[in-house]
Amino acid sequence: MSTATPAPPSTARRLRGAAPLVLATLGTGGLLLLSLTVGVYDVFGGEDGAEMFGITRIPRTVALVLAGAAMALCGLVMQLLTQNRFVEPSTTGTTEWAGLGLLVTMILFPTAPTTARMAGAILSAFVGTLVFFAVLRRVSLRSSLIVPIIGIMLGAVVSSVSTFLALTTDMLQNLGIWFAGSFTSVLRGQYELLWIVAGVTLAVFLVADRLTVAGLGKEIATNIGVNYNAVLLMGTGMVAVATGVTTVVIGALPFLGLVVPNIVSMFRGDDLRSNLPWVCLLGIAVVTACDLVGRTVVMPFEVPVSLVLGLVGSVVFVFLLLRQRRRG
Fold first, then answer.
1. Which superfamily does CATH assign the domain made up of 54-326 to?
2. pLDDT digit string (tens) for 157-171?
3. Of the candidates 26, 66, 297, 327, which lies 20 to 30 Å from 199 by C-alpha distance?
4. Can you give the residue ranges of every domain in the chain?
5. pLDDT in tens, 214-225
6. What is the mean pLDDT of residues 59-87?
7. Residues sharing a CB contact under 8 Å with residue 126, sequence separation 6 or more, in sequence order
8. What are the Cα distances from residue 244, in Å, to 18, 56, 222, 238?
9. What's the pTM?
């Protein structure tokens, strides 16, 4: 009588370990399917429902996936490079620098195409992030809270400069629209440049090991044989590209890169390589859930997703601060 050969223990453990990730993927997929069905226009019973589904619902859902995954990973990369859990593009001034670059590009070249505006935002975000790192090297960091405080202060200064320029050039309303992160304007033919951040997401997966080593500090990275400065520039470049593209196409998504990596780390530890899929999935899920809330809370009107994210993120930020304080 033949009996089935049992799977090796290592294989069984891998299967059990993959089950939560599969469930999380299915849950995130359910949110995305729900996003395809929620909206003011009846795409299932309307006369032009199928056409509207392809023009608005599918691009919006794809944008949720791309922006959510990329900005969550950006927060993780910045936390590694600064060795601080309280940083992400909106707490280091990177988002404000991207907005300033976009504004300056629009002032100097009013008829500039979207790609030119994006290039200006990316370049400004890259320079601004380097400025942030330069300031950190010259400040005595006695507490982990000093890092986000410095970033928020720098961001406030940059935001003031942007507001002054917008006032003097009668572009204050445009500035407000750019920083109000929303997926309302995502339509077919207007969001495709957002696929650039998919390349950033893939790049983070490919260089995860180097980022991990760089996160141990300059001395350890150099002793192992990793060029710390090169990895720092590479990480800064990836964050700048993702932040610049997302700011131009969607707007600001505050606290996303802060909340998601910290929640994943609380439940799964600090293994970067195994946490990357979880950070992507949770980033997509958080953005999609906040977007669904924004679409339904005052229907038929929409609340910008940045407002919902800011509310949720600020609560989690305070929770993390109190948790850090309890740990001393």
1. ABC transporter involved in vitamin B12 uptake, BtuC (1.10.3470.10)
2. 999 999 999 888 888
3. 26
4. 54-326
5. 888 788 888 888
6. 88
7. 236, 237, 240, 244
8. 34, 23, 30, 10
9. 0.86
